[in-house]
Amino acid sequence: MADGPWGAEFAQARGEASPYERKVLTDGVVTAAELSDSHRRVQSCMHDGGFDLEWSEENTYEVTPSDGSALTEGVDAALEKTRLACLDRWDHSITYLFTETRRNPEKQDDAKITAACLRTSGLVGPDYTERRWRSEHDTGTFSFDEYDPAAVQCRLDPLGLWRQG
After folding, report:
1. Which of 111, 46, 106 is nearest to 78 (CA)?
2. What is the DSSP secondary structure assignment for residue 51, as one 8-state letter?
3. I need a labelling partner for 107 at 20 to 30 A (CA). Which of 96, 116, 142, 155 fits?
4. 38 burial type by CB count under 10 A (0-12 exposed, 13-18 middle, 19+ buried)
5. b/e code 8-37 from CB counts within 10 Å (16+ = b)
């Protein structure tokens, strides 16, 4: 994969990476075990900074203060500082590259594969184009329910390679 469709992204990420992340990215592949290790390290780092972080199946996360307090302006600033420091050290690009190479390993045109998925799912009609998807994606306003399970499936796994939606 180092020279494959995602080779340029891996090379750029290695150039901006911490020593830990550079080691993970060297072979041009992020494995599930490497992703899990990275996520554990981010969680530990956040916990050391006073925050609990929980990862979702979609590789997004939710953060709360460890002491159960509410997010206030001061706490929010500390959270952001801690979050950036932890991600810079343990996961600046790992989650992104794992997710993107899994959902689109050949790096096909995202509009093409997503629009095709939406048409196949029946969320949009046969006349729904890649151009329309790009326009809607750019504005964040979709002509379909973006939270519909089929739409989520198309966003996360448009080629149907790994996720059972």
Report:
1. 46
2. E
3. 142
4. buried
5. ebbeebbeebeebbeebbeebbbeeebbeb
- Kindly report, residue by residue over 34-54, the tens digit of the pLDDT: 999 999 999 999 999 999 999
Q: How far apart are CA 95 and CA 59, in angstroms?
A: 7
* Tokens 């929980």, residue located: 54
The tokens of 8 are what?
A: 């340029």
Rounded to the nearest 10°, the torsion over CA 113, 115, 116, 119 is: 160
3-state secondary structure of 65: strand
Using an 8 Å Cβ cutoff, are 97 and 30 in contact?
A: yes
Mean pLDDT by 10 residues, the chain (165 residues): 85 96 96 97 97 91 89 83 96 96 96 98 97 97 96 96 79
pTM to 2 decimal places: 0.88
Which distant-in-sequence residues (6+ apart) come within 8 Å of 141 by Cβ?
A: none
